[in-house]
Amino acid sequence: MTVREVHSPDEKARVCDAIMRALPNWFGNEEAIVGYVREVRDLPFFAAYSDDISDCSIAIGFAALKCHNEYTAEVCVMGVLQPYHKQGAGKLLIERCAAAEVGFVAMKSLAGGLISDSALAYAFANVYDNVLPIWGIQKMSELQEFLSYQDAAPVLDDARRAQIARDRRELAGEFCRSCGYCLPCPVDIDIPTCARMALMLRRAPTQMWLDEVNRDKMARILDCTHCNHCADHCPYGLDTPALLQRNYEDYQTFL
Ligand code: SF4
Ligand code: SF4
Fold this sequence. Notes:
The protein is an alpha+beta fold and 255 residues long.
C-alpha cells in the first residue's frame, strides 16, 4: 500500500466523492457529501493506493487536512473502502506523519469509561512520542492520578501488556463504540448506552448504572420492533437488536 499527496482539485473531489459514496453507513447524507467534495478541493489531500489494484488511479482511501496554523491541523474528512479496513492504511498514515515529525492528539484514551485503569492507559499512550492524549476524565480521582504520573510515569511492562491483551479480547468484536450512527431509533431506545451496558456494569462503578433512569432506558429494549434500522446503519457491522437483547438479559441479573 502507498500513500501519495494529490494536488489536482478535480482529482481530490473525484476520490473523495467515490469513496464517500461507497461508504453509505458512514456517509449517508447527500448534503454532507456534496459539502465535503466541494471543501476538499482546496485542502491538503492524501490518497492511499493498494498494491493489488493494477489501475494506479483507483484510490482505496483518502484523508483531507485542515491546517489551522503553522503548528496544528485536523483531519477534516477521511474514508477507507470497507474491504481495506484493518489492512494498515491508518498505520501507514501515522508512520508517514511520525517520519515528518507530525504528532497527534488522541481522543477518548479511557474509551468513555470502559478503560478503568488510568495507569494502564497512560503507560500505553506514553510509548508513542508523537501522541498527545486527551484523557476524557470523569472523576477528580482520575485527575489526581494523571497528575501524579507527571512525576512517576507508569511503565508499559509485561503485566500491563497482558492486561491490554485481555482488554482487547474483551472489547473487540461485538463492542458498541457508542458512536450513535444507528440513531434515531423509532421507539427511542438509547442504543449507545444500552448496547454496551454489560461492559459499563463491569468496567465502571456498577451502582450508577442501576438507577431509575438507566432501568427505564433498559426496559425500553422490550419495545424493540426489530425494524433493523440500527443494524443497517452500524458501521461496525453489529447485530444491534441481538446485542441489545443480550444486554437486557445481562442487566436483569444485576437487579
Ligand atoms: S431494531 Fe429495535 S433498537 Fe434497532 S432501531 Fe429498530 S426498534 Fe430501535
Ligand atoms: S450499535 Fe453500532 S452504530 Fe450504534 S452506537 Fe453502537 S457502534 Fe455505534
